[in-house]
Design a protein that fits this description.
Blueprint lengths: L1 E3 L5 H11 L7 H10 L1 E7 L2 E11 L2 E9 L8 H12 L2 E6 L4 H9 L3 E6 L5 E5 L1
């Protein structure tokens, strides 16, 4: 089930944040704020929230802040479903991804995003856009 994220999802999303991004995670306050100013999607397997995506729009540009799928549910197409929905709803998408995150890079490239720059301040990351 793919649906819009709600404030009731924040705790479950936060749990995934800590698991997936142990060195750079959003806490519950930040996640709730991002949902209020942006958009979020969650994907569930039965009643279990197994993935999420967070975006924020600035004019015509949408920034994909986060996309994550629980490790036990990766490689089942959940990340691709989330990304494809975001791409359907947003013509101009950008995101930053760690160059060592080969799985994410493969997903983003397979969905038509291109590496258009490199962010070197704060954290090493590729900038990708549609």
């Amino acid at each position: 089930i793919l649906r819009s994220a709600t404030l009731e999802d924040v705790v479950a999303i936060c749990d995934l944040e800590y698991l997936l991004f142990p060195n750079n995670n959003f806490n519950e306050v930040t996640l709730a704020h991002e949902l209020q100013v942006g958009d979020g999607l969650v994907i569930c397997d039965g009643s279990q929230l197994v993935g999420y995506a967070m975006t924020v729009r600035d004019g015509e540009l949408t920034d994909l802040l986060r996309l994550g799928v629980a490790p036990d549910y990766q490689r089942r197409g959940y990340g691709k479903q989330l990304l494809m929905k975001i791409l359907m709803d947003n013509k101009n998408l950008m995101l930053c991804v760690n160059p060592d995150n080969k799985v994410a890079l493969k997903l983003y490239l397979s969905c038509g995003l291109k590496i258009t720059g490199r962010l070197l301040v704060g954290a090493d990351a590729w900038v990708m856009t549609t």
